[in-house]
Amino acid sequence: MSINFKMERYKIKREIKRSGTYHDIYRPELNEYGEPTGELKKILTIHGLYHEYAPHTLDTYIYLTGQEAGVKRNKKTPQIYCLFEDVFFKDNEEGEEYSHVRIGDVCFFGEKKYICTGLRNYQELNIAFDISFEGVDDIESGPKTPRKSS
């Protein structure tokens, strides 16, 4: 069985064009010592399909946990499904070198900050990527309206 790569790419591109959304990706800026400065620099805008993944007990992958008996909470993780070439961008204006979205890059969904936790080359076909994110729970990404004291 052979795969028609052109047709598969066309189907993904068509669906992204029809239902896709734009997402800005930021990278934390570093000082001369390689430490984060707290500032974010926009590196790329990705056009892709936003979806959420919630693992459950019937999934076919295995992961190890060091938990005792207790309650385990599965939460949904946001992902962006995009074309393979859309995760690459020119690193600077002068050079010909390309970079790509990396683990640790930042995206905002609504007003909440999310950090990239992984990229997966979907079916290893070099047609599409699934970019996974994890929410950041901090004061700055919380609600903007203060609570009223009673």
Q: Per CATH, what is the topology?
A: Thrombin, subunit H
Low-confidence parts, pLDDT < 50 over ≥5 residues?
A: 141-150
**What is the 3D shape?**
globular
How far apart, in Å, are the first and last alpha carbons?
68 Å
CATH top level is: Mainly Beta
Keywords:
single chain, two-stranded antiparallel sheet, six-stranded antiparallel beta barrel, disordered C terminus, 150 residues, 42% strand, mainly beta
Entry summary:
This protein is mainly beta.
Structure description:
- With 150 residues, this protein is mainly β.
- The protein is built from one helix and eight strands.
- The chain has one domain (5-55, 72-141): Thrombin, subunit H (Beta Barrel), CATH 2.40.10.
- Helix content is 10%, strand content 42%.
Q: What are the SSEs and their pairings?
A:
Elements (H helix, E strand, L loop, with lengths): L4 H15 L1 E10 L5 E18 L23 E7 L4 E3 L7 E3 L5 E4 L2 E10 L6 E8 L15
Antiparallel strand pairs: 1-2, 1-6, 2-3, 3-8, 4-5, 6-7, 7-8
